């Protein structure tokens, strides 16, 4: 109790600007005087804060007392391994992804249309992109620093959506059924819905050196890694030599993405190209299964 009284006196003294013994501080020290102070209405001269029925020092003293006596209740939020526990008692929540502004989305779509039409992102001109989107060229800089920054954002968003969709489709296939019809079929439909950005990304992987090509190639590497990890976990691929397995996955991804471009050019060939993808996948998986025992021996 003596320590708590000293703490309250210190809070009151600071609230009244260091004027120890002022009317505001004396009133904060006694409960009965606090009640009388609240009933009197305007604050006294010792505490000039603009609260009509209760001076600031009394409010601060009450808050301090509540802090001293309030029990600390843990939220029970789990602490992830390798991270620090949160400093407060608020449970951690996942922040939803920010919604893309309509103007920003229109600029990205205009840029991918022009790049697909012209053959390369390196031929884009800022004023033409803004005009294609229906904006003044000054509007561009409200959303992006440069054309390169914009295309980097386009390819990253495209790769993220593609990877998430493929993983969901792999794990949605019922056990005992081949994954190719569902997974590659979804990929064909995705390519048709995003024909411009798909075409641009596939061209840029063989384009001149630069950040956009690096982003595209990095995206394809991650797709191969996800595919190998998921198909091994599902029992579709055998446990083979990692280097040989990556070479096989490289062939599969390269050929399937080329088939996606064929579907974009001729959607009526979808079923025919889907059958070709399934035959290629089954042939390569059968070869990997034959070679796996040799690699282990």
Model description:
By secondary structure, the chain is mainly α. It has two domains: 63 residues, no CATH class; 151 residues, Tetracycline Repressor, domain 2. The chain contains 13 helices and no strands. The N and C termini lie far apart (77 Å). The N terminus is likely disordered.
Task: Kindly list the characteristics that best describe this protein.
297 residues; mainly alpha; Tetracycline Repressor, domain 2; 2 domains; 13 helices; 0% strand
Summarize the structure.
This protein has 297 residues and is mainly α. The protein is built from 13 helices and no strands.
| The CATH topology of the largest domain | Tetracycline Repressor, domain 2
CATH class of the largest domain: Mainly Alpha
Kindly give the count of domains. 2
Question: Approximately how much helix is present in the residues?
Answer: 55-70%
- The overall pLDDT, averaged over residues, is 74
Could you name the ranges where pLDDT drops below 50 across 5 or more consecutive residues? 3-32, 34-96
**How much of the sequence is in beta strands?**
under 5%
Structural class: mainly alpha
Task: Give the CA-CA distance, first to last residue.
Answer: 77 Å
Beta-strand segment tally: 0
CA-atom Rg in angstroms: 33 Å
């Amino acid at each position: 109790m003596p320590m708590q009284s000293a703490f309250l006196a210190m809070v009151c003294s600071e609230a009244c600007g260091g004027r120890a013994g002022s009317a505001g501080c004396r009133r904060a020290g006694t409960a009965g005087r606090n009640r009388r102070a609240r009933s009197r209405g305007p604050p006294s001269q010792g505490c000039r804060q603009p609260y009509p029925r209760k001076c600031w020092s009394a409010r601060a003293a009450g808050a301090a007392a509540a802090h001293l006596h309030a029990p600390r209740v843990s939220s029970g939020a789990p602490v992830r391994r390798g991270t620090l526990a949160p400093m407060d008692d608020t449970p951690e929540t996942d922040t939803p992804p920010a919604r893309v502004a309509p103007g920003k989305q229109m600029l990205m779509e205009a840029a991918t249309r022009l790049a697909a039409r012209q053959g390369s992102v390196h031929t884009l001109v800022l004023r033409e992109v803004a005009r294609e989107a229906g904006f003044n060229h000054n509007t561009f800089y409200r959303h992006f620093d440069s054309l390169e920054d914009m295309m980097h954002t386009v390819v990253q968003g495209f790769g993220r959506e593609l990877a998430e969709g493929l993983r969901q489709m792999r794990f949605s296939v019922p056990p005992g059924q081949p994954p190719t019809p569902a997974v590659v079929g979804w990929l064909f439909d995705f390519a048709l819905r995003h024909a411009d950005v798909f075409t641009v990304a596939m061209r840029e992987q063989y384009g001149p050196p630069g950040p956009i090509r690096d982003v595209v190639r990095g995206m394809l590497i991650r797709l191969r890694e996800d595919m190998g990890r998921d198909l091994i976990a599902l029992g579709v691929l055998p446990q083979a030599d990692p280097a040989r397995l990556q070479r096989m996955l490289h062939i599969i991804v390269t050929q399937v993405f080329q088939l996606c471009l064929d579907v974009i050019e001729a959607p009526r060939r979808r079923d025919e190209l889907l059958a070709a993808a399934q035959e290629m996948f089954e042939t390569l998986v059968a070869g990997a299964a034959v070679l796996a025992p040799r690699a282990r021996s």
